[in-house]
Structure formats: structure tokens, C-alpha cells
Design brief:
Pfam families: Amidohydro_2. The chain has 324 residues and is of the alpha/beta class. It has helices spanning 13-18, 27-36, 76-89, 109-122, 132-135, 147-156, 175-184, 200-208, 219-227, 247-257, 288-296, 300-315, and strands spanning 3-8, 10-11, 24-25, 41-45, 97-99, 101-102, 128-130, 160-162, 190-192, 212-215, 262-263, 273-277, 280-284.
């Protein structure tokens, strides 16, 4: 079995209005495309921006509160919309999907927690996802106002999947901060997305902590970033040693170095990214097919370990028949 552990479904109004790509993914299209490539199951969650932000700022890529809001509760609309789509609109696909809900650790966390308790009475979900960079919502708020999400993760025995960064300009999702929080909360399972941008010190910390994993979401364009020494990748003196001209080789090396902590994920549809940044067009373009191809170039034992065995250990499903 191949489980893709990192996928967005729905629409991102911020990305659409600001002119960034991608900004949407259709649930059925994802399953049909990925299924044709040999993917069997998908961990899915909404896109990043939420309707409790001031949408009037989205045209200029400004994250503001108040103003034009469709809801006061972050992700109340997005989480329910995703689960309704899976379980009510397309129940034939539901057995192949493992939905996670999204949260914002800074804005109105108590109301989010109340909404999640109501939502959990209506639909099952299997984890908690955060992408705090785009929201400009410091992950360190899990220590204070956002601590309720750690409490829910412990109460419901759900893992957390958190966008991670090592770029100095990213004040909100530093991999080292996430690892500090994971170390302080051994009762909660954490996955750090994007291979910690290949930062070896962070990957080694994941390997040492009993409650942490990492995924390699958007792997091929991250390899391209490493080849070109782009600023979102760990600098060479901190970078995990591999041949980044060959994404399949990097998967093999990561799987050998971190045999029980590495989970495979595509980050669909963010295996491609295109946007205008500082008046220049940045294009990092890949395909779902290339992501799967890089995985499958490895021996079957490696594929099974990083695309199923490790993911099952991270999920710790109470009912394993969900994946039958």
C-alpha cells in the first residue's frame, strides 16, 4: 500500500486573489490521478488561508484581522466543508481518505476548539494540521493561547502535521521551534513537513525523539531548491548530504539514515509552485507523476516502509481496518 501523507483539498482564496499558484485541488481529481499512479490512500486537509482573516487584504498578500470576514472562527468553514465533501458528497471515496483538520494556533483558539468538538460528533478525522507561515501565526503559540490544540491531540490521541521552515525570514514555523515543542510534549505525535528543508541537525533531532516524524512533501521542487541553493533550503553547511540532482537518490539516502521516521507525501497540488515575489516570477514546477516515480525508483521494501509502515506508526489508528 502507498499512503500519500500530505495533500490539500479545496480552494485557497488568498493564493487565488494574489495571483499565486496553485490555489485549488478537486478531491475526485486528486484520487483519480493519484490512484492511476498507484497511490492507495491519502491524508487530506484544507488549504491554508481561512475565512476568519480579512479577505480584503488578500489582493495585496496582507494578512489582517477584522474587516471582510466570512466567519469569526478560523477554519470553521473549511474543515466542515472538507468533511462534508468526503463523507456526504462523495462517500464512495471516503474509505480511501484520512482527513485532518486545520487549526490556527494564534487566532481565537478557544472557539476553534469548541467547533472541533461539535465537528467530531458529526464526522471522523484523524489528525491536526498547521501551516503557520502563510497565516503569520507563530507556532510557538502552542505554548500559550494555542495550547488547547495540544490538549485535544492528547485527549483524542491524534497526531499533528506541521509545516516547517529553516529560512531566517520565516518567523512563524521554524523547525527548531516545532521540535522544542515536541520535546516538551512527549504525549503528542508530531510530523514536520518538507524534510525540514534538508536541515540535518533538525532531521537528527527527529530521529532521536520518540514522538516525531518528518515527511518529504513537495520533494522534487525542494531538491531543485537545494541544487540551486535557494533560500528556503538549509544552507550547505547544515544540509543533509545527498545528490539533489536525483530526487530518487535523496529518498533512498533519507530512508537509510532515518529508517523509522521518514514518511512519503506529495504535498499535492503544491508539488508545483509559481508566484511573483519581489517583482520576479518564481516557478518551481513538478507533477504528481514525477513525485510517485521518484518514490517507486526505490526497492519495494523502502517504498513500503516510508509510504505505509512509518505512516501507520505515526497515525496510530484505533481501527486498522480503515486501511483494509
Amino acid at each position: 500500500m502507498i499512503i500519500d501523507c500530505h495533500n490539500h483539498v479545496g480552494v485557497d482564496v488568498l493564493f487565488y486573489l494574489h495571483g499565486d499558484f496553485p490555489y485549488a485541488q478537486h478531491l475526485v481529481a486528486m484520487v483519480e490521478e493519484g490512484g492511476a499512479l498507484g497511490v492507495d490512500r491519502w491524508i487530506v486537509f484544507p488549504f491554508v488561508s481561512h475565512m476568519a482573516l480579512d479577505t480584503s487584504g488578500f489582493l495585496t498578500n496582507e494578512i489582517r484581522e477584522g474587516g471582510m470576514q466570512l466567519t469569526q472562527v478560523p477554519y470553521a468553514l473549511e474543515n466542515r466543508r472538507l468533511l462534508k465533501e468526503i463523507y456526504d458528497l462523495f462517500p464512495e471515496y471516503a474509505p480511501r481518505l484520512l482527513p485532518f483538520i486545520m487549526v490556527d494556533p494564534m487566532r481565537n483558539p478557544a472557539a476553534q476548539a469548541e467547533e472541533l468538538r461539535r465537528l467530531r460528533k458529526d464526522y471522523p478525522f484523524y489528525g491536526i494540521k498547521m501551516q503557520t507561515t502563510i497565516l503569520q501565526s507563530d507556532i510557538k503559540h502552542l505554548r500559550d493561547r494555542g495550547k488547547v490544540f495540544l490538549e485535544l491531540a492528547e485527549e483524542w490521541d491524534l497526531p499533528m502535521l506541521i509545516h516547517s521552515s529553516v529560512a531566517e525570514s520565516d518567523l512563524w514555523a521554524q523547525a527548531s521551534d516545532i521540535l522544542d515543542i515536541a520535546e516538551e510534549n512527549p504525549q503528542v505525535r508530531f510530523c514536520l513537513a518538507h524534510s525540514c528543508r534538508y536541515d540535518k541537525e533538525c532531521l537528527d533531532r527527529i530521529n532521536a525523539l520518540p514522538n516525531t516524524w518528518f515527511d518529504n512533501s513537495a520533494h522534487c521542487i525542494h531538491c531543485e531548491g537545494a541544487v540551486n541553493d535557494m533560500p528556503f533550503i538549509a544552507p550547505r553547511h547544515r544540509r543533509f548530504d545527498s545528490d539533489y540532482t536525483d530526487p530518487a537518490r535523496v529518498i533512498a539516502d533519507l530512508a537509510a539514515a532515518y529508517p523509522t521516521k521518514f514518511m512519503w507525501g506529495s504535498d499535492s497540488p503544491f508539488y508545483s509552485y509559481a508566484a511573483e515575489i519581489n517583482h520576479e516570477i518564481v516557478r518551481l514546477i513538478c507533477t504528481y507523476e514525477k513525485e510517485v516515480k521518484a518514490l517507486k525508483k526505490n526497492p519495494p521494501e523502502v517504498v513500503q516502509r516510508i509510504a505505509e509502515t512509518n505512516t501507520r506508526a505515526y497515525l496510530k489508528l484505533k481501527d486498522e481496518s480503515i486501511l483494509a
